[in-house]
Specification:
With 289 residues, the protein is mainly α. It has a single domain, classed as Leucine-rich Repeat Variant (Alpha Horseshoe), CATH 1.25.10.10. Helices cover 61% and strands 0% of the residues. It contains 14 helices and no strands.
Length: 289
């Protein structure tokens, strides 16, 4: 899952869709996000001014520069394993949030159990950039059980890089039950997990349709509309029609203008003559501008 291809949402800077991440959610509710006062009060304030993926560069640096960066990152992570240096570890992790190198996987996996949530979160993002079958089980465990919402959000994003792994049901469950920031990225990653064939696309679409209709967060509804557009080609005809009808209803009636715009864009990108004709009719009738 290449970050520059991710969908748009409007509320929070973070991992790399075509526009910003979902917005800061309410951290005052213990049901929404557990913040360790000893660790996160200081470290999250410093490190989570932006997620590690904020620094992703979409340019194509020379291969020699990438290799040098990866070598440096490996050295920093190995050194931090012995010294416990937070700065070395974070610098190394940020390098592998940007670059791919299979040599880093054995250094990332132990960090999924690190006591510091910033280290866990950053390792999760790096494993989204550097996917490995060995990471699937610990990532799913974090999605289900980590008590930090930033970590679970990172997992929801990273699982989009594992479409052939058994991630569909965990992502659907997160889209249904987790906090808003996790739900947003679960919706995006379902577009990747469901795009491997009709058997996965149909249940993914069913959950996304439900979220598009009832989720209280506009950013989640917006990403659900985007994801449904991505899955459309893998769906059987009855489900395709349901997607079109729901997107049309959302485009006309959703309370949030960004969600309405996303639904319209998803419909336009289907490139279906029938759908485009319906849109033009709505324009002619003055119901769309």
């Amino acid at each position: 899952m290449a970050p520059p291809d991710e969908p748009r949402s409007e509320a929070e800077p973070g991992p790399p869709p075509a526009a910003p991440l979902p917005g800061p959610y309410d951290e005052s509710s213990p049901q929404e996000l557990y913040l360790d006062p000893e660790v996160l009060a200081q470290e999250l304030a410093q490190e989570l001014l932006g997620d590690p993926l904020d620094d992703l560069d979409t340019s194509d640096p020379a291969a020699a520069d990438v290799a040098a960066s990866c070598d440096l990152g490996l050295e920093l992570l190995r050194r931090s394993a012995g010294s416990g240096s937070h700065d070395d570890r974070m610098q190394g992790l940020r390098i592998f949030c940007e670059h791919r190198d299979p040599r880093v996987v054995p250094l990332l996996l132990p960090l999924l159990a690190a006591p510091c949530p910033i280290h866990r979160m950053s390792a999760v993002y790096a494993l989204g950039r550097n996917p490995s079958p060995l990471a699937v089980e610990p990532l799913l465990t974090l999605l289900a059980a980590d008590d930090n919402g930033y970590v679970r959000k990172a997992v929801a994003w990273s699982l989009g890089s594992y479409p052939d792994a058994p991630v569909l049901n965990p992502l659907m469950r997160s889209l249904h039950t987790d906090i808003a920031a996790v739900r947003l990225w679960a919706a995006s990653s379902l577009a990747e997990a469901g795009a491997t064939g009709p058997a996965k696309a149909d249940p993914a679409a069913a959950q996304l349709l439900l979220s598009l209709r009832i989720d209280s967060e506009p950013a989640v509804r917006s990403n659900s509309a985007w994801a449904l557009g991505r899955l459309y080609g893998d769906l059987v005809e009855p489900r395709q029609q349901e997607v079109v009808d729901t997107l049309l209803h959302t485009m006309l009636d959703d309370s949030d203008s960004a969600v309405r715009d996303e639904a319209r864009l998803a419909l336009e990108q289907l490139e279906s003559p029938e759908v485009l004709e319906r849109l033009q009719t709505l324009v002619d009738e003055g119901l769309l501008i």
